[in-house]
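note to self — DONT lose this again. spent like an hour looking for the file last time. sequence + predicted structure for the chain T wanted, 324 res
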Amino acid sequence: MSEVVTGDAVVVEVRVAQMPSRALALIIDMAVQMTVLIASYVVLEAFFLVTDMALFAAVSIVLVVLVIVGYPVIFETLSRGRSLGKLALGLRVVSDDGSPERFRQALFRGLAGLVEFWMFSGAPALISSLISQRGKRLGDIFAGTIVISERGPRSAGHLIVMPPQLAAWAATLELSQLPEEVAMAARQYLSRWHDLSPQIQHEMGTRIAAQVAAFVSPAAPSGVPPHAYLSAVLAERRRRDQVRLAQRNGMAPPAYGRPGPPRQQQGPYPPAQQQGPYPPPMPPAQPYQPGGQPSYQPPSYQPQAPSAPESPPQATPGGFAPPQ
């Protein structure tokens, strides 16, 4: 995963395309280009059989430039960053700020691709991709673009959701001091969680959760598994980013893990208590109870003015539950 900062100063998470998928997309695009070139030469040879050879050579050069440079430029401009190969692999070219690719950027990429792939057999692109942290080739560096994958793994997306038992506690978190390196380590741990043994899951999760807890307050309720704690922190962090983006675009704040269209007020809370983009006050957080059911009961509101909510109790750090 990587993050881009949009023009509205909103941090958006994107998944950078890996080299194997980009190489396969390039092979598909080059196969299409070679097929078009061969078919075009067959037609040209039949058409220019008795004409001037100089004209034939000039038309051939123009045809090669149009197919090699014009193919990626035209496709990526009209389809907002996707050629046929990228479309098949679920890839897309976007600007460094996450905005759609523009014609000028597609032209830079197409001209650089002529040198990188057709003149030097892809060696400059391979070296540049290995050096760059985001896997950028020379065309991406010159154009200010990045290739992202629109087909993220299901395991990571499934794990980074808000546990219902921790929703009220997560709404009170102070996340401004959380470094990006620590958040990235937590995301990588959750993406690999299913592939780890139970002992490694707990040991690695406890270590990463302790690093996150050093920058996040208040502390988690006692008995929270490390993966649930990290999921709650990252889900709340992502939700607040989506709230800021929705407010700038004039949309309703999205629910946990469900960015999208505006939604109506739901739940037992009266509209008068809804203050700001975060959920209304909840009862004090109780010790984590596994099984997928919340460990609290929503209070019943009477017509009179509700009393001031109680602040959740502070739990001691390091109280993460061991693996079951």
